[in-house]
Design goal:
The complex is a heterodimer of chains A (about 550) and B (about 475).
Chain A: H1 4-9, H2 14-19, H3 23-26, H4 36-52, E1 57-71, E2 74-90, E3 93-99, H5 104-121, E4 138-142, H6 154-171, E5 175-193, E6 198-214, E7 226-229, H7 241-245, H8 252-267, E8 271-272, E9 276-282, H9 284-298, H10 301-304, E10 336-339, E11 361-365, E12 368-369, H11 376-379, H12 383-388, E13 399-400, E14 409-410, E15 414-417, H13 426-431, E16 435-447, E17 452-464, E18 467-473, E19 475-480, H14 481-486, E20 488-491, E21 498-502, E22 516-520, E23 523-532
Parallel strand pairs in A: 4-6, 8-18, 9-16, 15-22
Antiparallel strand pairs in A: 1-2, 1-5, 2-3, 5-6, 6-7, 9-23, 10-11, 10-15, 11-12, 13-14, 16-17, 17-18, 17-19, 19-23, 20-23, 21-22
Helix pairs in contact in A: 4-5
Chain B: H1 7-20, E1 26-42, E2 45-63, E3 66-72, H2 77-91, H3 118-121, H4 125-141, E4 145-160, E5 165-180, E6 187-194, H5 202-215, E7 225-231, H6 233-240, H7 251-256, E8 283-285, E9 288-289, E10 300-304, E11 316-317, E12 320-321, E13 325-329, E14 332-333, H8 340-346, E15 360-364, H9 371-376, E16 380-388, E17 401-413, E18 416-420, E19 424-428, H10 430-433, E20 437-440, E21 444-445, E22 462-464, E23 467-477
């Protein structure tokens, strides 16, 4: 007979969970009278009111976001947020109004407020916004998922986590349990524009963490302490199936081995590192953090042009993007693409917040900067470049907003560092490095404007004759973005690619951040400067 | 457009919510109802401006110590009922507590600071436009590019249960501006926040930013290293505030050290430090804090008081009342923050807790020289306007931080500013730096709205003086403006 725990162990509870429970436990939908017709009616009323108030263009976004966070079997919380956002354009100036009130009178008031603001500010210096026409967006889209996590009873979710933790405790005399975290978000959005667009989208983010805790007694009679993170639970555009498919118990042997290796490594003192330049091999996570904070942030067009000067900093690929486009900013084997269609990508949508259907685009083509992240308004700022290359001037579909309480602006699409031609992985890159350093799970502090990055949080091991050696401490890499990317010597192949969630890089005032995914491969990079850790507090 | 809920509206809302809760137990509601007006500009053009309102409700249902919470921003009956049912559903997952562990709130009167300004609440789109169009025009006239932000907000924070309603309204206002020259090779910054828009001198701050930009042109690179640093108040706040956050000042954390067991909920803390708990700057040993020890320069005192007329903040959060506290007096750690449960268990006091908000006044005793006077007495040093990129989490127990200078940095030689210099990355511990203080200026209100204006998570007003600090570690050049 197959018991409940065996089901969990093999990740096969989905059908049982859905079929075996009464309906009142299966559905935990908020009580809401917001049917599709009513939502459309509210959105239409808003744009009509904005147009009547003089707006030459307006868009209304009605949003609803629900989220749940669990820490093991103890619930963190449940939250629901509604928003209505109206953005209006008048004589080159934008006005905005956001509120939680989904009713006819309020959305009309709000739309008038947005339009009136635009008119007030339009008394300033003459200004134009190029607003190239786009195909009218229409329809509905949803993140492809198998199970909406908000239709799974919370008891089932917490049971699932508790069973993993119980199995972990029983797995080995010294596995001292585990910690499970789970979070789920569903964002629903309806957008109407004065150009006749109306579309609805529902996106999902699911993810969490499972940490195996290992506490054996050591030779001195004290408890050692190690832990290892399971794979398969990183936040992604998925539903409850992420947890069903993760096969966590199957990973216990590997996690235990990681813990033991960790304790073994801790027993040997790290080797003091020497200041100098090294060939390094970075894992995919390190490359993800570097990509986001260098080329990723750098190619946000508004940031490059100085629009973030008063807050999170401008970009090293500015202030005049035209002087950078067409220039090499990386080694010829480096290609960076952006899209909003990556499977399970956190920024994946059918339409952006302005109704643009995003197409994948290339930011860095074989080392050369060829594009920036743009919205509809921003695309025109690069018109000479596009025209020179015979390309149509069109938005790259990067308009987004944190919620219906924030105005639309340019935000990150999903990013991909294209794999190298040979299907090699981190270990193969290490093997191909006679002498150097291996840098893993690196993160640090970027300086967007200067294009510098300092890695402070990372694991570092020496590479000797293509083999990983002792841990190295006391030195940290500090590099300029372009210098780093130009020294990329080799990249991991397609099977070494890993997709990571990024929960946003703060932008704008008031500050907002939107999630996206970044897919990277390990890399071998030459000539990276390591400075004394004492100079930077490590 | 609706702005935010008045006291009467909040009370009516909670009465409705209480009526919807059924099945015994108790219900508690926390509310932050808000309106915000903003205006942003860049490249001398207003890029976006708007009005935003919101109601953030957190509803907690409790039965015999088991509780569940749900958040919503909807205030109609149907959605309130849905949130209450969610909270009730969640409390079923929690265990009930034995009688002796049941929470009994300690209710005490709260002070009534003046933190409402009609001038702030009245700064509508028309008024914002009038002022800021002048600012952008002056930047155009000076041949520079300015980017900046104005935000005014009004909040009503409330805590309510079946027996009482606490409601407190407050306003916030902020202005900040960055001016860059046409080549984006030099920058100047100025900014401040407060409760009262009429007390913010936008024109004066614009002039300061313009002047700093002009004086920052053609910066030269000087060797990184240890310099005497004169930090203007904004730079001091950017640098030392991490020492006075609620997390850092938390007494239980300072005494507890590493987790005792995996069931310690704090153990699973997905921050940059991984899951191992760090000892804090106020930890003497596991189980022992540094209360009673001198931790910073003996001329420095750190306090917070909701009634401080220059630094007022809402007087409560939940049922926790904020009291006037001197955290550090004459360099000696006097108090650390704690919850009521800590007071009962560890201090044997059946009183309320001693919470911290992150708001603080850093003041010195003795002479209080101006920045110019500090410069005049400096043989060789660096003058810093502000810091950027300072992480929210330190790397080590010494609270070592890194970041970079922004908005104007100059070399001082023989008592005078001699030249603008290229920006530096710094690597320094604020705890150590506050033990290397040479001169202390007059505390001034600075710009602290980095994390928003929601109280207490984001809104933490700060008063700090300019400081002259010896041997400040400017660890490398930062290729930025």
């Amino acid at each position: 007979m197959t018991d409940r725990r065996t089901f969990l162990k093999h990740g096969s509870l989905a059908a049982v969970g859905l079929v075996g429970l009464p309906r009142w436990m299966r559905i935990m939908e908020p009580t809401s009278s917001n049917g599709a017709d009513r939502v459309r009616d509210l959105a239409q009323r808003a744009i009509e009111a904005a147009r009547d108030a003089g707006a030459t263009y307006a868009e209304a976004r009605l949003t609803r976001q629900i989220s749940e966070v669990f820490n093991g079997s103890a619930l963190g919380g449940h939250a629901e947020e509604f928003g209505v956002a109206v953005r209006a354009l008048y004589n080159g100036y934008w006005g905005f109004a956001g509120s939680p009130y989904w009713n006819a009178d309020d959305v009309v008031d709000q739309a008038r407020s947005a339009a009136n603001q635009a008119k007030v500010y339009a008394r300033g210096r003459p200004h134009t916004v190029d607003w190239p026409p786009i195909p009218v967006a229409s329809g509905s889209w949803s993140t492809p998922i198998r199970y909406d996590p908000f239709t799974i009873p919370i008891e089932e979710k917490t049971d699932h986590a508790a069973s993993w933790e119980q199995l972990a405790r029983e797995f080995h005399p010294h596995t001292n349990g585990a910690m499970t975290g789970m979070s789920f978000v569903r964002r629903e959005c309806a957008v109407a524009t004065t150009e006749g667009a109306y579309f609805t989208q529902t996106t999902y983010v699911s993810g969490g963490r499972f940490v195996l805790l290992y506490k054996p007694w050591n030779a001195e009679g004290n408890l050692d302490n190690a832990e290892a993170d399971a794979q398969g639970l990183m936040h992604t555009g998925a539903g409850w199936e992420l947890f069903l498919d993760a096969k966590i118990p199957d990973q216990f042997p590997a996690l235990l081995a990681q813990c033991e290796a960790q304790l073994q490594e801790e027993k040997s003192d790290p080797k003091p590192g020497e200041v100098g330049r090294y060939t390094i091999v970075c894992d995919a996570l390190t490359m993800a953090n570097i990509l986001v904070n260098t080329i990723g942030v750098g190619t946000q067009l508004d940031r490059a042009l100085g629009y973030e000067a008063n807050t999170g900093m401008t970009s090293y690929l500015g202030p005049d993007p035209m002087t950078f486009l067409g220039d090499p900013i990386a080694a010829p084997l480096v290609t960076v693409r952006a899209d909003r269609s990556m499977p399970r990508g956190l920024a994946t949508v059918q339409w952006d917040a302005e109704g643009v259907r995003p197409e994948p685009f290339t930011l860095v083509d074989k080392g050369t900067l060829v594009d920036y992240q743009t919205t509809r308004e921003q695309a025109a700022w690069l018109a000479p470049w596009y025209q020179k290359r015979g390309k149509t001037v069109r938005s790259n579909g990067c308009a987004n907003a944190e919620s219906g309480l924030f105005t639309t602006m340019q935000h990150f699409p999903n990013l991909t560092l294209e794999p190298g031609p040979r299907d090699i992985d981190f270990d193969a890159l290490v093997a191909a490095t006679p002498r150097g350093l291996a840098v893993q799970h690196g993160a640090g502090e970027p300086n967007f404007n200067g294009g510098q990055m300092l890695l402070r949080h990372f694991g570092c091991r020496e590479i000797v004759d293509g083999k990983l050696g002792r841990s190295v401490a006391g030195i940290v890499p500090l590099f300029g973005s372009t210098d780093f990317w130009k020294h990329v010597v080799a990249l991991g192949g397609p099977s070494s690619a890993v997709q990571y969630p990024i929960f946003g890089v703060d932008k704008g005032e008031p500050g907002q951040a939107t999630p996206f995914s970044v897919r990277t491969v390990p890399a071998q990079v030459a000539n990276v400067a390591f400075i004394s850790g004492a100079r930077v507090g490590k | 457009m609706r702005r935010f809920l008045s006291s009467d509206e909040a009370q009516a809302l909670v009465k409705r919510a209480m009526g919807l809760a059924a099945g015994g137990g108790s219900t508690e509601v926390e509310l932050d109802t808000s309106w915000q007006g903003n205006l942003r500009w860049a490249r001398n053009i207003i890029t976006t401006a708007g009005d935003i309102s919101n109601n953030r409700l957190e509803i907690e249902r409790s039965i015999r110590g088991a509780s569940g919470t749900a958040k919503t921003n909807q205030i109609d009956d149907a959605n309130l009922l849905a949130a209450i049912r969610r909270a009730e559903r969640l409390l079923n997952l929690r265990r009930e507590l034995p009688e002796e562990e049941l929470k009994h709130e300690f209710i005490e009167p709260y002070p009534r600071p003046v933190i409402w300004s009609d001038a702030t609440y009245g700064l509508d789109a028309e008024a914002r436009a009038t002022g800021m169009l002048q600012v952008t025009q002056s930047s155009v006239g000076a041949g520079v590019q300015s980017a900046g932000y104005v935000q005014v907000a009004a909040h009503g924070v409330a805590t309510m249960d079946e027996d009482r309603v606490w409601y407190y309204p407050y306003t916030t206002a902020q202005f900040s501006i960055t001016v860059q020259d046409a080549a984006a090779s030099a920058a100047g910054w100025a900014g401040v926040d407060g409760n009262d828009w009429s007390k913010l001198d936008a024109a004066g701050l614009t002039a300061i930013a313009l002047d700093k930009c002009v004086r920052s042109r053609n910066p030269v690179a000087i060797e990184p290293g240890y310099y005497t640093a004169i930090l203007e108040p904004q730079a001091v706040a950017d640098f030392v505030s991490l020492l006075f956050t609620p997390e850092t000042l938390d007494r239980e954390s300072a005494e507890a050290g590493p987790p005792n067991s995996p069931s310690d909920s704090r153990y699973f803390d997905a921050n940059l430090h991984g899951s191992q708990r760090l000892l804090g700057p106020y930890t003497r040993a596991i189980g022992q804090s540094k209360i009673g020890e001198r931790v910073i320069d003996e001329r420095l005192t750190v306090s917070s008081d909701p009634m401080d007329p220059e630094l007022s903040f809402p007087p409560f959060h939940g049922w926790q009342v904020f009291h006037p506290v001197t955290w550090i007096k004459d360099g000696v750690l006097q108090e650390l923050a704690y919850a009521r449960s800590y007071a009962v268990k560890m201090l044997g006091k059946d009183t309320g807790g001693l919470p911290s908000t992150g708001s603080y006044r850093l003041s010195g005793r003795g002479e209080a020289p101006s920045v110019d006077e500090m410069i005049a007495t400096t043989k060789r040093g660096v003058l810093v306007t502000r810091f950027g990129g300072v992480p929210r989490h330190p790397l080590d127990v010494a609270m070592t931080l890194t970041g970079y200078t922004r908005g104007g940095v100059w070399l001082i030689e023989n008592g005078k500013i001699t030249k603008p210099v290229r920006n530096f990355r710094f690597t320094e511990s604020p705890m150590i730096a506050l033990n290397k203080v040479e001169q202390i200026g007059v505390p001034k209100r600075v710009f602290r709205p980095k994390y928003g204006d929601d109280f207490p998570e984001g809104y933490s007003p700060v008063m700090v003086p300019a400081l002259k600090i010896r041997d400040f570690n400017f660890s490398s050049l930062a290729e930025s403006i």
